Amino acid sequence: PRPANILPEIFDTFYHRRNNMETLIINAEMKECRNAGMQKESWQLAIMTLLLLFISLTLSAQTNIKAVQDAFETSYAQEKKGELNKAMSTLTAVYAEDSYEINARLGWLNYVAGLFTESMAYYQKAIKLKPYAIEARFGFVNPAYALGNLDQVITQYQEILKIDPQNTIANYRMASIYYGKNDFAMAGRYIDKVVNLYPFDYDSHLLYGWILLKQGKTREAQVMFNKVLIIKPKDVSATQGLSQIK
Questions:
Q1: Torsion of CA 131, 168, 203, 183, to 10 degrees
Q2: Residue 246's pLDDT band (boundaries 50, 70, 90)?
Q3: pTM recorded for the entire structure
Q4: How far is residue 36 from each of residues 24, 29, 39, 41, 60, measured CA to CA in Å?
Q5: Residues of 118-146 as b/e, b for ≥16 C-beta within 10 angstroms?
Q6: Contacts from 148-157 at CB under 8 Å and sequence distance 24+?
Q7: How far apart are CA 219 and CA 154, in angstroms?
Q8: DSSP alpha helix (H) spans, 81-99
Q9: How large is the greatest C-alpha to C-alpha distance in the chain, in angstroms?
Q10: Judging by beta carbons within 10 Å of its beta carbon (0-12, 13-18, 19+), is residue 95 exposed, middle or buried?
Q11: pLDDT for the residue 137
Q12: Quick check: 182 pLDDT over 80?
């Protein structure tokens, strides 16, 4: 026969199991809350760390910018007094490989000091940092030309004209280079742009007159030389050019 008290035991067992389950659920919820609290504290700590790092980097950057500004100001004053080595040392003290401005400035100072190879190296770094800027390329051609590296000069002018096809300085200088090489057809292509952009410019009209004369285009050369005499009356070179036209 079944015991008479089995039903109370069943209910008692169920009750204890339910209490145990509730206890487990409560403990799990408390653990989850503690974990959530720890995660929140961790996030807060991470955010505070990043904020402090950002503030530190900002202050450091501001300090570095001020140091560079002071170095540039000092180097200008030293250059003005002819103290080129000091000016270069001042900038070298704050040198940064990724600074376009410092590399371009050192390129100029080395060029003025007659250190052409060093000057080219600094200008090359500036060009690499800002490949679409033309000022460092113009700077580069000065020491390159001083060393007789005409091919490198031409290359830089060609690169400048890819970026700025209407650049009158590059076009005029390319025309002058090819005139010196007796390549008058190529010289004419470059100088023609300058004359059309600046119809009242003395130098370009005079050079174009001589280019045309060397090509045997005497009628066109005569027109150019006469324009030069309007811009600059009694110009010796234009007068000589006209005297060669029969």
A1: 70
A2: confident
A3: 0.74
A4: 18, 10, 5, 9, 36
A5: bbbbbbebbbebeeeebebbbbbbbbbbe
A6: 150/177, 153/177
A7: 31
A8: 84-92
A9: 148
A10: middle
A11: 98
A12: yes
